[in-house]
# Entry
Amino acid sequence: MIFRSSGQIEQAESSGMPFGVMEDSEYEEATVELFEGDSLLLFSDGVFEVHNAQGKLLGINGLTDILKDLGYPATAIQPAALEEELLKFSNDIRLGDDVTLIEVRIG
# Structure
């Protein structure tokens, strides 16, 4: 996801297998233009494929809402706070998949 300094949020589409899952996987190259104040947030599916007790999927929009509630992108992501919010949503004591985030901030 790209968080623009203007407040706009864009999804950068990707395809292919996750890194490291299968040897000799092929990936398409993508270019994303980032500007001063923008942030690029890359994450694994375990971050948004969280279900609540009723079976509702958090999804990308739910993740975006959580990030906004945590003050992102004005403030850096606090991994413990994000994990706590994901656990609250799931009403569980642990997450069922890995939660991996990589953030790139410009400027």
In short: The first strand starts at residue 2 and ends at 3. The chain has a mean pLDDT of 87. The beta strands are 2-3, 9-10, 39-43, 101-105.
